[in-house]
Amino acid sequence: MMHKFGSMFRGQERSPWLWKVVLGVILLLVIVLTVIGMYWSNEPAQFDVNKVARETATEHGYDPNKPLVVGYTIGSTLHELVSTLLNKPGGYISNDVMPPGVFMDNMPSWEFGVLVQVRDLSRAMRKEFSRSQSQSTEDVNLKVAEPQFNFDNKSWALPSSESEYRRGNKELMDYLNRLAGTSGSGNPAKFYARADNLVDWLSDVNTRLGSLAQRLSASVVDENMTPAGVSDEDAAGGGHQRAYHRTPWMQIDNVFYEARGTTWALLEILRAVEVDFAPTLKDKNALVSLRQIIHELDATQDTVWSPMILNGSGFGVLANHSLVMASYISRANAALIDLRRLLQQG
Prior knowledge:
- The chain is mostly helical.
- It has 12 helices and 2 strands; from the N terminus they run αααααααβαβαααα.
- The protein has a two-stranded antiparallel ribbon with strand order 1-2.
- The longest helix has about 40 residues, at about 1-40.
- The termini are far apart.
């Protein structure tokens, strides 16, 4: 009997130490995962589109002393954007089901912003840039690559998003090798750097930036005005009421980082456009307008020094990072409209 009581007493003495060990392990795990999450949250730096294009071409057998063929810089930039998504610290995080990735939301939002630009450009390359006219045949590689980049961005397995995007990148590289004449294939690829092709892609960019600017501005107040074609009398009669919507507090940083990812990718693409469409831009006197857009978007990549995205009111004490981002994007979008107008002129 005394032996039983002694055993119980000793068990009670040991249990506090056991709990301390368990809590210590949990605390250490939380700290480690937090540090890893912070490291994975670092946004990739900008890259030199000319350098990447030259290195990619040389790596695949292109003569380093020859100028790159038209379209290669844009294609290699698209390839590098996808490679960055897959190979940055932490890899592709949007479909993670394990910590710390599953608890992160800023980097997945950034990744989605980049992915939207990848999808838009790959569609433009398939539909416009690689075809001489609407009745021409689609490129054999691009018609495979474009659907791959449009695969579900949150698929974890069977198949995973990463495997589909890698397949798309492989098809894109096969196209680039055919474009540069290094594939050994008897079916050379084409790239048509015409003004009308560029205008069609810029129209998509225009829509994307306009939507982002509106969503960012909604961090303060977004007012749904009377729809077009509805008279003020009908609206006042109750058929169409004005509704006020505000970005939920927990979604503000997600929209902000989606905009950061979109503008990061768009900056690189526009720099590549400046290279491959240089004759067209000069002929239309549109080169200055393109550089103005790049200048405006470049400011969106400035370092965010605040530990969190602030949502202060318009002229309040706290900053509003979303409104600052919306301002840069709106100015770039206005310049984009001017660029499209110049390209459409004869």
